[in-house]
From TrEMBL:
Regions crossing the membrane: none
PANTHER family: SPERMIDINE/PUTRESCINE IMPORT ATP-BINDING PROTEIN POTA, SPERMIDINE_PUTRESCINE IMPORT ATP-BINDING PROTEIN POTA
Keywords: ATP-binding, Cell membrane, Ion transport, Iron, Iron transport, Membrane, Nucleotide-binding, Transport
Name of this chain's protein: ABC transporter ATP-binding protein
Keyword Disulfide bond listed: no
Membrane listed as a keyword: yes
Amino acid sequence: MSEMHEKPARVTAGVTFAARLAFEGIGHRFTPHQATLHDVTLTAEPGEVLCLLGPSGSGKTTLLRIAAGIETQSAGRVLLNDREIAGPSVFLPPEQRSIGLVFQDFALFPHLTILDNVRFGLTALSREEARGEAMIALERVGLARYAGAYPHVLSGGEQQRVALARALAPRPAVLLMDEPFSGLDSRLKDTVRAETLAILRQSRATAIVVTHDAEEAMRLGDRIALLRHGRLVQVGTAEELYLHPADLFVAGFFSELNLLDARVRGGAADTPLGRFPAPGRNDGEPVTVAIRLSGFDVAEAGEGVAARILSRRFLGVVELLDLAVEGCDEHLRARIRRGQLPPGVRDISLNVNRSDVLVFERRRESA
Ligand SMILES: Nc1ncnc2c1ncn2[C@@H]1O[C@H](COP(=O)(O)OP(=O)(O)OP(=O)(O)O)[C@@H](O)[C@H]1O
């Protein structure tokens, strides 16, 4: 419908008190022989948007469900504002946790009006109070005028905003969102995502958002927690994870990479593309040199490593080159700005930007 033009209302009512949600040494297993989560310690600070990022099956949803009280951990504790809400001695049921949930499928009731959908969870209030709170939440997401309509008249993006209003209406201390935008087409995603972030900021709720999309995590998260096989690999800001990845897995999650095997000599890794600093590594140590696809300067002629273009694909703003370089067993890929090379050119010279090169201990990681 019209969410491209319409901005959520700027209302000041309906804010929550931001809370701190902490996972302490969380372990979880669905079966005795297979652990889903291993010793996860992680804190979402008050008012923060924390993204849980990781490939499919890494345990993101399970961690979210443990926070909500829909799943029980086998080890560790969950604390809300330093108070244990799930642990060896306590287990608060979901409705007593002051935690709101938004799922990818929106899960609106088709036979209830928008207002009644938002009012649904406000059972502790009188009918009139619940109506008032639901209207505040609908105003917050800019959809108050649809209060009497039914969900089918709304677009996917608007339905998602209703789901957000429903989760915010009880003024939860923490909002948990599981792949909240994956049901939206890519055209809508950016808008709804930006609107959701604005609403989260206004409502001051602490939010944990699950996604498997690194760019989405970078757009939304104040910090990102990256999970792999149920373990926390790295937690930090987008810049920290992108610029200083803890390992090759983290680097590969944020950038497409060329990987070259190399050995260290005199504090640098020797490759056919040049020597790259490998501080702290011993002579003879095998390493993997990772070069971002965007890390190349190309020219038709000049200083640099000689490369031959094997294929060249137009991708709009950029072009993707497949390159052969002497001494490299595998082809290299490079993303260059469109128009940087004239059409038809085959032999070029290549320079690597040092800031796009990362050197890791040699250990081929699988996702
Ligand atoms: N009810 C269940 N019973 C048994 N195993 C399960 C159950 N739910 C999830 N799993 C397994 O636990 C692991 C973690 O699943 P989880 O859904 O938490 O991962 P995820 O990172 O959220 O993945 P996705 O992005 O695909 O949703 C997976 O290997 C999954 O197959």
